[in-house]
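pls design
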């Protein structure tokens, strides 16, 4: 089995409903070498405790198949900078609990949406996000927490690299932090990754430092640049287009990062997109051994 380390770490968002080992099997069936999953039900309440043998089976699969880092996703409803104190304290408790459970899957990523400041203003929003992170991050934890770049819908914090940098500046244990770049979100947020991908990466490097970039969400966008809408499209069916995704999987600064699809085409769509991106990267599809 020629699954060398040079293959793209690419995958998609998967459901946890059949457990962790089942996600590994689903990923294999899609020829995925990473994936994302929600760490808890977005409707809130307590998260299910993890079944240690289920998690152990997944860990064996990941190691045997040479998976890249996984990119777990916090629920969208979690808002560290809500104007409601009970929402903020729920978000902090949920994040602390998620990170504790992630310790059983060491060395992976936990991505979250910084939050929506809901009329409190960006400055208050950033302060609340930093306070939350300073409360929940545990020095020495095995998970790196990623801020996701946002589209700037409503009062979302994190639509510019500058806002993300201000959050990182306020986090005491910033060695535990990184950034996940969502292609649909940065496009909707105004960054021209179609005509000027290298310039956007230079700006990221200037403002945040490229070493902070730990993962990518690959989504096309249903809207033109700067729309601030956040509507994902299948690759090639939106305003970003296939050439940009071809450039990304071949880009020396990007090709080794875990890449997660969050496109609306279901499992068949994911399978086709993964195969297409592997072709763009010059890789053989599954089953096509030399
Ligand atoms: Fe997200
Ligand atoms: Fe995303
Ligand atoms: Zn999105």
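designed seq:
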């Amino acid at each position: 089995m020629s699954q060398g380390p040079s293959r793209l770490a690419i995958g998609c968002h998967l459901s946890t409903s059949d457990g962790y080992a089942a996600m590994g099997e689903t990923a294999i069936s899609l020829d995925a070498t990473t994936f994302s999953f929600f760490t808890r039900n977005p409707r809130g309440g307590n998260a299910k405790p993890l079944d240690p043998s289920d998690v152990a089976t997944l860990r064996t699969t990941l190691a045997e198949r040479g998976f890249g880092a996984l990119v777990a996703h916090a629920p969208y409803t979690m808002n560290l900078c809500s104007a409601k104190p009970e929402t903020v304290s729920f978000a902090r408790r949920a994040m602390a609990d998620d990170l504790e459970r992630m310790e059983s899957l060491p060395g992976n990523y936990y991505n979250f949406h910084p939050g929506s400041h809901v009329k409190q203003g960006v400055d208050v929003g950033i302060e609340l996000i930093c306070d939350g992170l300073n409360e929940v991050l545990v020095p020495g934890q095995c998970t790196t927490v990623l801020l996701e770049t946002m589209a700037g819908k409503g009062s979302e914090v994190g639509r510019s690299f500058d806002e993300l940098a201000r959050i990182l500046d306020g986090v005491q244990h910033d060695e535990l932090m990184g950034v996940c770049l969502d292609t649909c979100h940065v496009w909707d947020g105004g960054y021209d990754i179609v005509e000027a991908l290298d310039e956007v990466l230079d700006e990221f490097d200037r403002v945040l430092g490229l070493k902070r970039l730990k993962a990518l969400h690959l989504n096309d966008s249903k809207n033109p640049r700067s729309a601030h809408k956040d509507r994902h499209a299948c690759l090639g069916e939106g305003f970003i287009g296939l050439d940009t995704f071809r450039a990304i999987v071949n880009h020396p600064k990007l090709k080794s990062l875990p890449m997660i699809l969050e496109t609306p085409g279901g499992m068949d769509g994911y399978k086709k997109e993964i195969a297409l991106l592997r072709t763009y990267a010059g890789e053989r599809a599954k089953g096509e051994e030399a």
